[in-house]
Design goal:
By secondary structure, the protein is mainly beta. The protein contains one helix and ten strands. It has an eight-stranded antiparallel beta barrel with strand order 1-3-4-5-6-8-9-10. The radius of gyration is 18 Å and the shape is elongated.
Amino acid sequence: MRVWPAVLVLLLLLGGDASAQDVSWGIKGGVNFATLSADTDPGPDFGYRIGLVAGAFFTWPIASHFDIQPEGLFSQQGASLEATGLDSVTVKLDSVVVPVLVRYRLRSSGTGLVVFGGPSIGFNVQAKATADIGDQSISDDFKDDVEDVDYGVVFGAGWEGGRFLLDARYSWGLSVLSTDPNDADQAKHRVISVLAGVRF
């Protein structure tokens, strides 16, 4: 599924009327601490995969303290996993995610603490498992076994000062990722992200 053109078109449409609506935009990037949840008990022993997250955003002020902020981010998600006889296994589930955040600024000036939350949609671009055995690495592509689209909610807080910003967020996946309805694990995304950015 080719999602990059769709995301670029979305961002262009969102920014097309920026001057008329006093919209600002910017770029941000940071690090993910991603894992997966499972419904089975005991389930797989998922650990964290550390990955990159980066992209762009637009911000609409809608009141003295409130904004709407859609984002388009490339996000390296998934998990690490311990398996008998293997040094390590990394589940790589890379996605383009589009959260639409409602933000509350504690100061109407735009400088200071911000809290936010909202829905998110993700478009899977890679699903691969990599196993390390000694000095060898084996990879398996299982993209056909993962849903192309998943949904979730995002919430977090940040700080803004002038053009620069920091935020920390938690992404709670609502969608089961496997295309197999009989998959007992019913795995879903769980991602902690820390990002820094600049607004133009």
